Amino acid sequence: MTVSCRKVRVLFVTIMMLNIFFCILVGISWKLRKRGHHKIRIPFKRFWCQRVLSKSFWNKEQQRLDFIHNPIFSSWLSGNSDIELPDWLNDSRTLDPCEPNYRVTTQIVDYNSLPERFQHFLLHMRCRTYPMLINQPNVCEDKPFLLLAVKSLIPHFDRRQAIRETWGRAGVLANRTVATVFLLGNTMSVDHFPDLLGMLAHEAVLHRDVLQWDYRDSFYNLTLKEVLFLEWFSKHCPQAQYVLKGDDDVFVNTLRIIDFLEGLSEVAAKDLFIGDVISNAGPHRDPKLKYFIPESVFVGQYPPYAGGGGYLYSGELALRLCNVSHQVALYPIDDVYTGMCLKKLGLTPEKHTGFRTFDIEEKYRYSPCIYRSLMLVHSRTPQDILKIWPWIVHPELDCQ
């Protein structure tokens, strides 16, 4: 064993001992405070504390990031640039994170059996920089109270238009400034989509609310859409007070959301993150399911997370999520990934009954007054959205 390798091993053991000591202190602190109500929770069993190098691909990637972003290691490494790092920390073979990382094909034992788009995600998992094809740098020039960020796909013209005409109409609503952006990736020839870029370019010029990046838009890349939006937000819309992030097939009661936000205290607003929260969940192991994640990719439980159909959070928290996302390895399920980022910040999303990402009882779906008390419902067609919105804005509807 070389001297440099021994130095790294000694440092690694030292950091692990410090982590154990920190966990003990946090556990004592948490027990002393558990009688009170605290929005910020640091659990006794830390989600990030791993004692041995994992065999699962994502867990190894996360351990690598944890080690790199450890302030003790990073300061030590900056003064020892000639040190030879162990293989699991050494990235010299992939200097460009946006070049396909073909090592994953041998690092994941069942790689060849995974869906092709899942394989594509894994090959490009470290890349977070993609060219922006359509930007709207002035969309937040009026310093919006609420920014509506809607995940969409290029062919979904009808969904975007229905939203523009209803809950996503930009301008002044209830004496508050509202801005709207639609988040899109690109289509690839391998996915056999028709060429709609000319129509999209016209839409972007006409409405000035389309954001598009040059990456393959797929279910597994929704996490990439999340981090690219956060980067865009930090550069072009950091003054927005709140963000509602949702799919293009949800109905949102924008008036109810504004009313809720106006009643928040300054303390509650700072760490606000609410939605339809899922707790005590873990990865699905059935290959037939949409959310299938094999043990070769990830082991462990998921932290609490809000269903990706839609959630509401503060602009200040969006900036912190942007920063911390660089310390969390991309995960192929976007809402779980956001929960991981919140966990890294020491926060837990808060469940709100106004968010119904798994819909409401069928007998109430076309009852006008039900929607007055809700914030978000998933899913609704463009025709449904156009039908429901008048129920929200017409004052003559008596729901007493």
Structural overview:
- It is a single chain.
- By secondary structure, this protein is α/β, with parallel strands linked by helices.
- The chain folds into 2 domains: 1-85, no CATH class; 132-393, Spore Coat Polysaccharide Biosynthesis Protein SpsA, Chain A.
- The chain contains 14 helices and 12 strands.
- The chain has helices at residues 3-33, 57-68, 71-78, 104-107, 116-123, 157-164, 197-207, 222-236, 254-262, 266-270, 315-324, 334-345, 370-373, 382-393; strands at 132-134, 146-151, 171-173, 176-186, 210-216, 242-247, 250-252, 273-278, 305-314, 350-351, 355-356, 376-378.
- Strands 1, 2, 3, 4, 5, 6, 8, 9 and 10 form a 9-stranded mixed sheet that branches. The chain has a 3-stranded mixed sheet with strand order 7-12-11, with helices on one face.
- Helix 8 packs across helix 11 and helix 8 (222-236) packs across helix 12 (334-345).
- The longest helix has 31 residues, at 3-33.
- The radius of gyration is 23 Å and the shape is globular.
